[in-house]
Every structure is written in structure tokens, then in C-alpha cells.
Amino acid sequence: MMGPRRSAATGPRINRAPSPLVALTLPWISIMLASLVPGWAMIASAPVLPPLGFLFFISWQQLRPGLLPIWAGLPLGLFDDLFSGQPFGSAVLLWSLSAIVLEVIETRLPWRNFVTEWLVAIGLIVAYIVLSLALVNIAGAAAPIHVIVPQIVISVLSYPLVGLIVAKIDRIRLTPLMVLK
Amino acid sequence: MAPPANRRSGFSRRAQYSTFLSYIAGAIGAVVGLGLVVISIANPGAFSGLRGAAADVTEPAAKATAAGRTVSKTVFSDIAGFFKFGSEHARLERELAEAKVRLVEADAIRAENRRLKQLLDLTRSDEGAVATARLTSSTSGSTRRYATLDAGRDKGLTKGMPIRSKLGLVGRILEVGASTSRVLLITDTESLVPVRRSTDGVPAFAQGNGDGTLRIRLINLGINPLKKGDVMVTSGSGGLYRPGTPMAILTEIVRDGAVARVLSNPSDTDYVMVEKVWTPKPPPPARENSETFAE
């Protein structure tokens, strides 16, 4: 008779383990792609897309606390700064601070549900966008605050979707590819 | 969600130290970020080389998606066009008839213009485009309005060159890389372009609002002569932007100027032209009538 049905993506699981290379690098690669690719989608004349790199960054930390080290904001923020248009270093600063905040929340509130995670994420996203605008304005642009309102709304609403995508990538990350000997 | 079990340090000194050190590393990241921000605020061009190199490296992929973006837009407009065909055709025929008349008028004006310029002994400066290139990416998640152009030093581009599409001004070059360059779009809040009303030359400045519109500020304060629907073109004063490039159409009148919509929406433009930096001619030597001619 036929054995239990397996999905094609996972394949046979016995005697197999996830590849450590994929498991370690996929979060970093997905965050870097999220920083890079959205800029190609359109030539926008207003800030309309959410800061997707940052959304992926906090989503990975909420899904897998401790997978990204606290200092991950330094290299990933540097990469984001190359393409974001913000004053260079603003992502390094804000991503590092938010990593520390998330780590503290993680130790204080070990048991969480969807609503608390989303509320924490909303707080971080709003703070990130407002502080990004503040840094841009300190650097010389006099952008009014109403410019970022649509972006905040889009970012907050799209965060659960980013969480879904990150969860899918996490499944790929832990797919047992390697045959154990 | 249950907490992961292996993350509590407990009484292990080693685990406690490593937790402490990871916090220190995070704080160092924040301090480094703060230092970089201070440097980039003090000297905005400090990291332009790094940014240019990054844009050069990612250029092939960005170029490919730019082509895909254009194709997908064409498909959608083709489908929309199929449904609007009849009314569109009638409208276009009507407009074509009008445009033919206008064209004849424009020819006459051009001929007259040439004759008058010959009388005044003015020669037209060369206005060929330096390069034709494509906008490949933009900072759609930031408050600043930058775009990346897929031409750089290899096509002879230099800082300050104005960029325009068929419909009007798009921006100017801010940083030049090896094969890409960074464009400051006119909707950015730091972009300031001297403009005039196309009909009678009322002078003003056009500054980006950051949300896709432009703020037109009149130079002569007093009674605001602007009206909704007026078109502003670049005036060329101070150099940089060639005079007469169409730029914006007024949508809302405010006390000391107007709010305007950009004529050449950068998301609709496929290819853009890079023009030479325009330098106004020195005024002719003073004669008995000390008039100066701009062009």
C-alpha cells in the first residue's frame, strides 16, 4: 500500500536535516532583497511603499527570536542605506535600536500572541517612519509630516502579510535537504 | 507563542556574559549608525562613491525589471484602450484637426522667431541631448525623492545635468557613478527650480512638496496673478535648467503662489533625455539702450 502522503516541497524527512548554510543565510538574504527590490517596482513621486527591509527585519526577529544577533542591524542597515535614499547611517542607527528594543520585549514578555506582536510591530514601524522623516529633515529637507501618513497606514496594514511571507521563507529555510550519513 | 527554551541564561556565567556582550554589540551598532548619520549630515556627498558602486553592481537586475515594468504598463493600457476605442478615436480626430492648425501657426512663429533672431544677431546654442537613458529605480520607501538612471560617466554625464522626458522636466543629476547616476527628482523638497508662467513670464520658484506635488512661490508678492490650469515652464535664470522646458500645471491657488501637478510623471516616463548644463550667455556690451536678451 501507499505510505502517508507527502508534499513535494518537503519530500522524505527520515534521515534528512536542513542545510545549515540555507538555515543561516536565508533570513539575511531575504532582508537584503526586501531592502533592494521594492525600489525597482516603480519610480515613485511620493513615499508610497513601506520600508520593506525594516518590516522583514522585525518580522524575522519576532518569528525567530535570537536567530538574528542583536548587532544584525549594523550590516543589514548598512546595506539598506545604500539604496534607501535616507541619509547614510540612519538605517544602521534605527535598526540597531529596534533590535535592542525587540530583544528587551522578548525577555520581558516571553509568552505573546498575534495581537501583542502586531502592536509591538506597529509601535516600531510608526516610530521608524517618523524618526526617518526627522533624520531627513535634520539633513536639510523640509518635508511636512503629512507626507508620511499614507506610508504609515500602508506599512501597518501590510505587516501581517510580511509576517506570512517570512513564515513561508522560514519553512523553506528548515526544509530537510541534506541526507544524513 | 511559547518562548524558545534555549534562550534563558539561568545561572551559567558564560551564558550571562554572552547575552551581555550581544547587547553591547547592538549598542555599538547604534553608536556607529549615529556616527554615520552625523557624517552624512555634515557632508552629504561623503558616501556617494559607495552608493554609486552599489547602484552600478545592481544595475543589470534593475534594468531588467525596468523593462518588465514598461511591458506590464503597456499591456494594461492596451486592454484599457480596447474598451475606450470609439470615443477615443473621435476625440483624437478632433484634436488632430486642431493640432494641424496649431502646427501651421507654430511654423509661422518659428520662422518669424528665426528672422528676428537673425536681426538681433543671436545664435542658438546647441541643445542636443547628452544621452538617452532609463530610470531604473527610485527611493519609494523614503521621504527623499531620488531615482537611479542607467547611464553614468560611461555616457559622459556630469553632476548638475538636467533630465527631461518628452512631457517635461524630471530632475537633475546629483551623483555620477561608473554606469549609473543618481537623480534628484523635481518633487523632492530640496529641489528648487526657477520657473515662469508660459504665457506672460510671471517669475516664480517651484519647490517639491515631497508628496508628488510642487509648491509654486511667486517672486513678486502682492496680487497673485496665477490661475488654475496655468502652465509653468523653466525660466533658466541662474543657469542649470534650459529655459522653456515645460514643468507643471497649477491645480490650486494659495495666497502667495500655487500648488502644481508635475507634467512629466516620472513613473510614466520610459526613457528620459539628459541635457547639457545650461549656462546663460553673458549680457551683450551696453549700448545706448541697455536691454539684455535672454535667448
The main sheet of chain A orders its strands as 1-2
User: Helix coverage percent of residues of chain B?
Assistant: 25-40%
> What's the end-to-end separation of chain A, in Å?
28 Å
CATH superfamily of the domain at 129-275 in chain B: Rod shape-determining protein MreC, domain 1
For the record, give the distance between the C-alpha atoms at the N and C termini of chain B, rounded to a whole number.
Answer: 72 Å
Question: How would you spell out the order of helices and strands of chain A?
Answer: EHHHHHHHE
Secondary structure tally, helices of chain B? 4
Which architecture name of the domain at 129-275 in chain B does CATH use? Beta Barrel
What's the order of the H and E elements of chain B?
A: HHHHEEEEEEEEEEEE
Give the integer mean of the pLDDT values of chain A.
87
CATH topology of the domain at 129-275 in chain B: Thrombin, subunit H
How many structural domains are formed by the residues of chain A? 1
Q: How many DSSP-defined strands of chain B? A: 12
Unreliable residue stretches of chain B = none
Major sheet details of chain A: 2 strands, antiparallel
Family (chain B): Belongs to the MreC family.
Organism (chain B): Novosphingobium pentaromativorans US6-1
Transmembrane segments (chain B): 20-42
InterPro entries (chain B): Cell/Rod_1, Cell/Rod_MreC_2, MreC, MreC_beta-barrel_core
Give a quick rundown of the structure:
Chain B: Keywords: Cell shape, Membrane, Transmembrane, Transmembrane helix. The complex is a heterodimer of chains A (181) and B (295). Chain A is mainly α and 181 residues long.
What is the secondary structure topology, with strand pairs?
The complex is a heterodimer of chains A (181) and B (295).
Chain A: E1 16-18, H1 20-36, H2 38-41, H3 52-63, H4 73-84, H5 90-108, H6 114-138, H7 149-173, E2 176-179
Helix pairs in contact in A: 1-3, 1-4, 1-7, 3-5, 3-7, 4-5, 5-6, 6-7
Chain B: H1 13-42, H2 48-57, H3 59-83, H4 85-120, E1 129-138, E2 146-149, E3 162-164, E4 169-176, E5 181-185, E6 192-197, E7 203-208, E8 213-218, E9 231-234, E10 246-254, E11 257-262, E12 271-275
Antiparallel strand pairs in B: 1-2, 1-12, 2-5, 3-4, 3-12, 4-5, 6-7, 6-9, 7-8, 8-11, 9-10, 10-11
